């Protein structure tokens, strides 16, 4: 497969590194959260932004729940702020962590919110009442990332002790624990067909696991520094990785072949760590954000 990369825009306005992205209130919007403690929403059509809210601490994660018109915001002090997007009012603060909230996910199937903290805790709350349902201290390191596989009813959790843990999505029974990376396991991403688990680590490796038994089928020295995020394209043919080495890389999701390296020299890419990715259905745009305080919009097309 051959692809062509075009940079569409660079969006600026945040005053500090951008650690969090999520899809916005409609297809052409995206939310961002930054070290400047501000949540903004960006229009991918006009490239204009709107400040949504500010918070008392650095923002590390956001989770938009469209059906509830809620935005969950995880901050450096361990809190998760619940924001009503209709009136932009903060309606609740979840205090289940004592350090950075690195990832927030929700599931309408289980009606739960899942959070990963720098305190080593993995917490589950009710989406209706926001009450704590379960909290587990998984390790003495940071819990970094969460993903769901609805095909197998499983949750994967990546953490700084190098391990990846697999839980049953209904019972929360721990089904498997395995070493994901030689250094911290930073990100986990199930393939859309549910057959593979992709993981990225502080060791710069992209590892591919077969979901049936979680045996590694491929280990790729993908980046020179830590991998922070993985995102599939809307049609699932491609996926992208983001790294502290200042690059984005585009991969063939069937062969796991590297197709493009997007960096400062070749495509006027990020000049610092790339922290977060969203692959939008709007114009098939890939959106990246980083320590350079920039959000970049990329058009990725087959040739």
Question: What does this entry look like structurally?
Answer:
This protein is mostly beta strands and 303 residues long. It has a single domain (14-227), classed as YVTN repeat-like/Quinoprotein amine dehydrogenase (Methylamine Dehydrogenase, Chain H, 7 Propeller). Helix content is 1%, strand content 58%. The chain has 1 helix and 28 strands. The protein has one helix at residues 264-267, and strands at 3-12, 18-23, 29-34, 38-43, 49-54, 59-65, 70-75, 80-84, 89-94, 101-107, 112-117, 121-126, 132-137, 143-149, 154-159, 163-168, 174-179, 185-190, 196-201, 205-210, 215-221, 227-232, 238-243, 248-252, 258-262, 274-279, 285-290, 294-302. Strands 1-28-27-26 form a 4-stranded antiparallel β-sheet, with no helix packed on it. The longest helix has 4 residues, at 264-267. The mean pLDDT is 97.
């Amino acid at each position: 497969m051959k692809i062509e990369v075009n940079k569409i825009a660079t969006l600026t306005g945040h005053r500090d590194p951008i650690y969090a992205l999520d899809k916005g209130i409609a297809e052409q919007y995206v939310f961002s959260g930054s070290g400047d403690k501000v949540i903004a929403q960006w229009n991918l059509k006009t490239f204009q932004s709107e400040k949504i809210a500010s918070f008392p601490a650095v923002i590390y994660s956001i989770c938009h729940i469209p059906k509830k018109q809620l935005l969950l915001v995880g901050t450096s002090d361990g809190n998760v702020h619940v924001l009503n997007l209709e009136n932009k009012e903060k309606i609740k603060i979840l205090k289940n962590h004592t350090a950075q909230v690195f990832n927030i996910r929700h599931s309408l199937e289980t009606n739960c919110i899942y959070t990963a903290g720098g305190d080593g805790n993995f917490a589950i709350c009710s989406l209706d009442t926001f009450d704590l349902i379960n909290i587990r201290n998984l390790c003495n390191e940071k819990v970094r990332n969460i993903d769901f596989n609805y095909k197998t009813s499983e949750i994967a959790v990546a953490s700084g002790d190098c391990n990846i843990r697999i839980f049953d999505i209904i019972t929360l029974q721990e089904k498997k624990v395995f070493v994901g990376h030689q250094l911290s396991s930073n990100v986990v991403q199930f393939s859309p067909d549910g057959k593979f688990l992709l993981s990225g680590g502080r060791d710069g490796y992209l590892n591919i696991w077969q979901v049936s038994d979680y045996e590694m089928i491929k280990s790729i020295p993908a980046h020179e520094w830590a991998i922070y995020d993985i995102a599939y394209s809307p049609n699932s043919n491609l996926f992208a990785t983001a790294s502290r080495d200042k690059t984005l890389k585009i991969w063939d999701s069937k062969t796991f072949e590297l197709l493009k390296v997007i960096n400062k020299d070749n495509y006027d890419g990020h000049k610092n760590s790339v922290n977060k990715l969203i692959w939008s259905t709007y114009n098939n745009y890939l959106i990246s954000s980083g320590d350079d305080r920039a959000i970049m919009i990329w058009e990725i097309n087959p040739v």
